Amino acid sequence: MSSRKFEAKRVLVRQADRVADRSWLQFEAIPEGDRTRLVQTAYFAPTGFLGWLYWYGIYVVHALIFSGLISVIARDVEHGLP
Description:
Number of domains: 1
Distance between the termini: 18 Å
Structural class: alpha+beta
């Protein structure tokens, strides 16, 4: 076990897709004792009614995709994969 200390680190990824609105996915690693908490946050800036309709229309799909993504990252880290 390493005794090195680090501060929270954050990565912000801009989504590039066919949606005209702006969206980002943020990952933040927060040290908690000898473990690290990984927090994932999705940001979406709709540009009108259709943007809002899109976001909330596939809200459940987004929730499944994002929770699956964080689970895969956690599993890979626990198994020592880069």
